[in-house]
Amino acid sequence: MKPFTYVVPQSLAEACEASQKPNTLLKGxxxxxxxxxxxxxxxxxxxxxLLPLKDELAGVAVEANGELRIGALTTxxxxxxxxxxxxxxxxxLRLATGMTATPxxxxxxxxxxxxxxxxxxxxxxxxxxxxxxxxxxxxCLAMTGENRYHSVLGWSDCVRVHPSNLAPPxxxxxxxxxxxLGDKVRRRKFSELFPADPRAQNPEHxxxxxxxxxxxxxxxxxxxxxxxxxxxxxxxxxxxxxxxCAVRLVLAGGVITAANLxxxxxAPVPLPREKASALLVGQKPSAALFAKVAExxxxxxxxxxxxxxxxxxxxxxxxQALDEAVR
Length: 327
Ligand SMILES: Cc1cc2nc3c(=O)[nH]c(=O)nc-3n(C[C@H](O)[C@H](O)[C@H](O)COP(=O)(O)OP(=O)(O)OC[C@H]3O[C@@H](n4cnc5c(N)ncnc54)[C@H](O)[C@@H]3O)c2cc1C
Fold this sequence. Notes:
Order of helices and strands: EHEHEHEEHHHHHHEEEEEEEHHH
Number of strands: 12
Distance between the termini: 50 Å
Number of helices: 12
CATH architecture of the domain at 54-116 and 162-218: 2-Layer Sandwich
Structural class: alpha+beta
Bound molecules: flavin-adenine dinucleotide
Strand order of the largest sheet: 4-5-8-6-7
CATH class of the domain at 54-116 and 162-218: Alpha Beta
Shape: globular
CATH topology of the domain at 54-116 and 162-218: Uridine Diphospho-n-acetylenolpyruvylglucosamine Reductase, domain 3
Largest sheet: 5 strands, antiparallel
């Protein structure tokens, strides 16, 4: 590892000031970041450790308007076990959090770090490969190489997938996020955190250099809201998803009055599927409807040489998530 300066801020203001310095990286628990530094994929001159700011930036609170405020440094275990997530509207977020990694990882990993983690593509994560997304080569090596875990939807010149468990359910719940960049405080829709055109040269997220995520905000959900999250993976634990689906439904009198369906692990960004969601609205839940929605969720897919299994499994996961949401 190249030597670097390690900043341990005593306040958010101090962290914001330090993060303005060029070639600085922010650290949550460091599970993803330190991995990448060990591989020499990141060689910062300075690291700002955010963990001393847990008093300010960790914890879950229910605001007066019913909104859930999730501090950026909240651990995945704290989030999963928080009383506020016991409501059926938040089942999807709770399940996605509890399925992430292992208990040891969840006890350390932060919510912001999970959402902002780098793709798991083995070409970009190894210094040995001259990959386009890593800025080390002219082309996406996974496109014609070993691509069983890569994208089947929404890709153009890079077939990496977005690995975060938390991002799909947060998108389905219409969440927002707050940041600090120097003195500037901003609050934006969660969908703006991910590039609209996830090409190779775009990073996984749209934050500016030094911009610190401070909190995620989940709006109060209307009566009758149900949600679910399901994923497929090769191992039952210690693994990332091969396909994932988060759904949020509002039911009134047995009819679905609103729906958000978001796919994970199949595209370079967590992928809202508006046309599939629209098919649900105004309908009564049924196996036939859910099969149609699953087909629509994967409409236009372009699988690669080794990952067309994701279409079959992915559609089954969509149906399972819908079944669980209305159970
Ligand atoms: C064995 C194993 C299995 C795993 N399985 C899964 C899985 O199934 N699903 C899944 O989603 N993840 C999985 N993970 C990944 C794990 O959840 C993430 O690595 C972890 O959540 C990252 O959190 P962190 O706090 O350590 O982030 P860090 O590693 O500290 O940071 C990650 C990135 O976020 C940036 N960052 C962190 N906090 C902030 C902030 N507040 N503001 C701005 N930028 C910030 C950092 O600069 C860095 O780029 C797995 C990891 C392991 C080791």
